[in-house]
Amino acid sequence: MITTLNIKNIGIINDLTIDLNEGFNVLTGETGAGKSLIIDSLGILCGGRFSKEMIRKGENHSYVEASIYLPNVKNEEEKNIIVTREIYSNGRNTCKINGRLVTVSELKNFMRYIIDIHGQNDNQKILDQSSHIEYLDLYIGEELEKLKSNYKDLYNKRIELKKELKNNFGDEKERQRQLDLLKYQYEEINNADLKIGEELELETNRKIMMNAEKISESINIVEDSLTEKAVDAINESIRALEKIENIDETYSEKLNTLKNIYYDIQELSRDIVGMKQDNYFDEEQRQITEERLDMIFSLKRKYGNSIEEILKYGEQIKNDIEKIGNADEYNNELKEQIINIESKMKELALTMSEIRKEYAIKLNSKINCELEDLEMKKAEFMVEVNYEENKFNINGLDTVEFLIKTNVGEEYKSLIKIASGGEMSRIMLAIKTVLADVDKVPVMIFDEIDTGISGKASRALSEKMKIIAKKHQILCITHNANLAARADSNYLIYKIVEDNKTKTNIRLLTEQETIEEIARISSGEVTKIAIEHAIEMRKAV
After folding, report:
1. DSSP at 541
2. Cα separations in angstroms, 464 against 313, 364, 370, 461
3. Is the pTM higher than 0.70?
4. pLDDT, tens digit, for every residue of 109-157?
5. How do strand 100-102 and strand 115-118 relate by DSSP bridges?
6. How far apart, in Å, do the first and last CA atoms of the chain sit?
7. What is the residue-wise DSSP string for 246-294?
8. Could you list the residue range(s) of the whole structural domain that residue 261 is in?
9. Where is the domain boundary, 325, 350, 365?
10. CATH assignment at residue 27
């Protein structure tokens, strides 16, 4: 249940805090007091759309927060939840569940299991066909529960086996497609005849080729300087030192050093000449190098970031090719297991379908009785159960849809195709009354569900709401005296003016104030006769 709701800066709401009670909570007030803004705020908190025009004039953001208590949750730490949503005029949006940031989608998915909002133009969980089978199964209860549990175990096992089969190339077309692809990839890598370190060597050669002219020019300068200048100069110096080497040991040592330098320069000169010859590249060599590097780049783009990775991937492909070739025997075992599981699933699904069809008739009868109480005597509700051969889903082989026809001679239609708001309100209330014990959404909100309803239907409506309130917290905005009279807690929503600004306020009414409010709703003014009538309405609760 919602224990506290805080709303800031939405429409004429400035800063509003509501402490709500269990059971049937009715919110009343004059038109324009801000009642629908409270429902809109709850819709925003449930992940609904928000327009920046809703932000209170003069403010740059709006804020909605709800403290929620879930008594049926086993974990004590998860019983108390605080949900917030803050929206700014620049479009920034912040959603939190117990202080943890979540997306709007996550918030919406979380809140759909806590709050169910129904208004004249609101779709809700029960209007979602995918949830109809869930409602029917909850209504059936224990008789279906064990069968469904066994079926789900088989269903999940089937998914695992099919996944394993797919991963093991179990599908014939997929396997052949994969085999052709792997063979192509393996041949492409194998035919490339890659060598580790090759790319670096090619890059080096390519760099040299690109700078061949510059290299040749520099080597020519070096060759000329060494051969024609340095060698001749050192040779002449050697001859000069030879003339004085016997005079002193020092001259002899320097002569030996100079001779060694001479021999080194001669060797270096020969190397330079060799480098000059090696620096010759023809256009064909350059083209071969470029093409080889392009091929390696293409393979890296497809199979790995380096030659090592490409070769490793090639080995993996080779193993996969062998694995596919040896997979038939194991895959046949998996297929046999899937066939056996599907046979058991089908048997369970057929039994579940028969049970669903049996209980669908009972549910039809109960809801139609409720519709008759709500003065829809010509309406007929039907739960349609369709068994779809071999179309396994998590719930079996059935699809379930709630249908209605509101007049004799008409065809059954989906709930969402009902045009009249008043009829839709009564249909929804009839369904909710019957399913009140099994519907696990704890909070139900009704925005002027009484629109288009009066007289006996109005009284019946209030009785149904009272029944639902035994199992759920209800928040109901209404102008209907019968609903207000049946409430466990009555709240008055009204406007006040402060600092030349209008704002919405709310207060929990005392018993006397409740009677006066019922009198106002029923007759338009609080008279003695209206008070007496309101007292009688309260006594009838």
Report:
1. -
2. 68, 17, 9, 5
3. no
4. 899 889 888 765 444 566 778 888 988 998 898 899 999 999 999 999 9
5. unpaired
6. 23
7. TT-HHHHHHHHHHHHHHHHHHHHHHHHHHHHHHT---HHHHHHHHHHHH
8. 177-325
9. 325
10. 3.40.50.300
